[in-house]
Amino acid sequence: MNTGRGILVLVSGLLLLAAPLRSEKKIAGPGPLRDVHVLKVDETVVALTDHSAKVDDAVPNLIQDNLRSAVRNAGFDVADSPLSIHFVLEEFSSGSTATRLIIGLGAGRSSITGHLILHGADGKELASVKLHVNGSLDAYQKSSTQRRDALTRLQQAILEQLEMWK
Questions:
Q1: Considering only CA atoms, which of 67, 87, 82 is closest in space to residue 33?
Q2: What angle (nearest 5°) sits at the alpha carbon of residue 100, between those of residues 94 and 104?
Q3: Which of 54, 82, 139, 164 is the most exposed place for a label (fewest CB within 10 A)?
């Protein structure tokens, strides 16, 4: 009986590691993107919580490109608009191949954490959500592949959030 419970706890823990984390939702009114057809995508803001961490200069641009793609995939046009959206990058890791190989169980994966923020015409924050995504569990991936996988998962998480804000 304890073995079954242990397996259940292990499987539940792995599912939690694989799923994107969404928390700290702040939404003003029902569907801040209701009846909106155009969004302006602003630059990614880098506000790392670990000041010793360094982020490749290309990462904020890649995140902005993924945000732009998610906005388009959600059915919005990307152009100058009173409503703007941007991502605040708080934590980024391209992962560690050695850690993935030696430890396994999700250790050493790439990860991205930050806030997706929607602003109104007056500059006031209309909605905000914290997003966290990880790269895949494949221990044999290079760090660049892990980073690309995390960026793809971030784009999907942003798309899902935009759909919820409609």
A1: 82
A2: 140
A3: 54
CATH class for the region spanning 21-165? alpha beta
pLDDT in tens, 21-58: 444 445 445 689 999 999 999 999 999 877 666 778 88
Report the alpha-carbon distance of residue 66 to residue 165 in Å, rounded.
18
Three-state DSSP at 154 gives helix
Q: Which tokens is 121 given?
A: 């015409």
For residue 39, give Cα distances in angstroms to 45, 65, 71.
17, 14, 8
HSE-up of residue 74 (Cα within 13 Å, Cβ side): 27
C-alpha–C-alpha distance, residues 39 and 122, integer Å: 14
